[in-house]
Write a structure and sequence with these properties.
Number of helices: 3
Strand content: 35-45%
Helix content: 10-25%
Order of helices and strands: EEEEEEHHEEEEEHEE
Oligomer: single chain
Distance between the termini: 22 Å
Structural class: alpha+beta
Length: 195
């Protein structure tokens, strides 16, 4: 089954995977603690604005806590910025997803996002709905087929396990994945480029 890009979010661990039929020449890279989806060196030229974006940011909140934000596009940055300003995770997700709406491409691709930390939420904005739900167990939402949050068996406990497990899930056209997990010292992050 092809579900496109997806997030899996739980209170302590999360993952994001790029699955793509149209633009498989991508990888995840870390830049100053932020993880970005970027074209590989051999990727064809494109003017598609949805190919490269930050997909994972960990931010400090004014209350002293830390939250990780995962997502499939440019909405990750404003969600993270709202959290840094003190917005509750639910509001940061809902306001940003509503403002940016689904992607205006040929498929009306939904935007998916989630937060890991004290406030674990998952959200999606589709052409016909905006859904944001608090999670207390691993929950998946994808751009296609599974575009409504659903409980999902995900056993990873570390960032590396989360990235690998997301990459290896039996959904078609895996390209790359990231994982994030809460530790006593903050968040650990991991990248999986299928190597």
């Amino acid at each position: 089954m092809y579900v496109g890009r997806f997030v899996v979010v739980g209170p302590e661990v999360g993952a994001y995977r790029v699955s793509s039929r149209s633009f498989p020449n991508r990888k995840v890279v870390e830049r100053d603690g932020t993880i970005t989806v970027a074209p590989t060196e051999d990727a064809p030229e494109t003017d598609n604005p949805y190919i490269a974006y930050n997909c994972l940011r960990c931010v400090d909140r004014p209350d002293g806590g830390e939250t990780a934000v995962l997502g499939n596009g440019s909405h990750v940055d404003p969600i993270a910025e709202k959290l840094e300003l003190g917005y509750p995770a639910r509001d940061a997700l809902a306001e940003t997803l509503l403002a940016l709406d689904y992607e205006k491409d040929d498929y009306d691709t939904p935007r998916v996002a989630g937060t890991v930390g004290e406030e674990a939420y998952v959200g999606v904005v589709r052409r016909d709905a905006l859904l944001v739900e608090r999670v207390d167990e691993p929950t998946l939402v994808a751009t296609y087929e599974k575009d409504e949050p659903e409980a999902f068996a995900f056993g990873a406990e570390s960032a590396a396990d989360a990235a690998r497990e997301a990459y290896d899930l039996d959904f078609e056209h895996a390209v790359c994945a990231v994982g994030v997990a809460r530790t006593d010292d903050g968040f650990e992050r991991a990248l999986e480029n299928g190597n």
